[in-house]
Amino acid sequence: MNAPVATWSLFRPSSRLSAIGVSEILKITDLATELKREGRDVIVLGTGEPDFDTPDHIKDAAARAMQAGATKYTALDGTLELKAAIRAKFKRDNGLDFASDEITVAAGAKQILFNAMMATLDAGDEVIIPTPYWVTYADIVLIAGGKPVLVPCEEANGFRLTADDLARSITPRTRWVMLNSPSNPSGAAYAEADYRPLLDVLTAHPHVWLMVDDIYEHIVYDDFRFTTPAAIAPGLRGRILTVNGVSKAYAMTGWRIGYAGGPRALIRAMAVVQSQSTSCPSSISQAAAIAALDGPMDIVTERCRTFEARRDLVVAALNGIDGITCRVPEGAFYTFASCAGLIGRTTPDGARIASDTAFAEYLLRSVGVAVVPGSAFGLAPYFRISYATSTAELEEACRRIAAAAGRLSPGELA
Of 59, 135, 149, 259, which sees the most CB atoms within 10 A? Predict the structure, then answer.
């Protein structure tokens, strides 16, 4: 009698997953979790999520919606009421006029990106993504059959894409350029003067569309003036998708509501994709999102000031450590610091710090601080810290990082 075949051995993953692995962020998180289970005191600075709770007026709106029976399916890509709130937001904050059928709502901004890529990419179509970048951008492109074209953006230029680099990266197969401002992971933001040369390049290439991720729009510092490309290049409005959501500014990551405004033909195509995946977003979350977008901004402004104070604390502390330098970010809640000055040094047990990944692992194992290496975001040797955590934890984490760096011995430099 033949031995039974193990069920798992019959599984065959799709070929589209072959180029997509477990992200470095998850690997670091898993290791941090393992160390915590062992009783280690670990400070995790890898989470891209506000540590604040959702404001009460938003939670109250969700409760009222439930009590009123708003618990059924809604229109596929958002209720008319939520679309009205989104239209008002775009007009109020960005000077953009969208009709209802130029607005789409999904289960998070990530699904908006996914819908757009699935609706527009054919096999081999190229998508230009400046690095450092949020890794999900490239993975979504790959799942949709496209080809991510990663363009390194140097710290000397504020981690921003230049017009020359953009022009050199465009080919006849280029379908999209993806921009994120303020950026995850660098916190870099594009002012109007930074955008204009890029928009001039796109004007000369009418086959290329622009997707802008504005999810950190309301988390900016030092009087930085946020703008979005569709507002300053009306001639390109017909090929720009402006993506946003309520996750970051309103501390609503778990509510899963993202939205976008763009050309109605694209919005219709994205609705087809959504209709065969999640269908409509949560009815309760949509009611909460209306309250967020229509409600007062005082608490958002207050929390932004808190983030700014944390940014200043972390940047100053990192720049005080020999071998580490840190640019001051314009927005979001991340620092993206260079550890180039530590590469080649050796740990107390004789191990060589050969990369930013090795440095991140050294920090976690030696002093219990979890950061994400810049190589995970396509640019080394850097590391990302999320300062969306308490001031006390940030102070302690920076003290530990300084102590760990101070214990490294000079070695043979690479």
Answer: 259
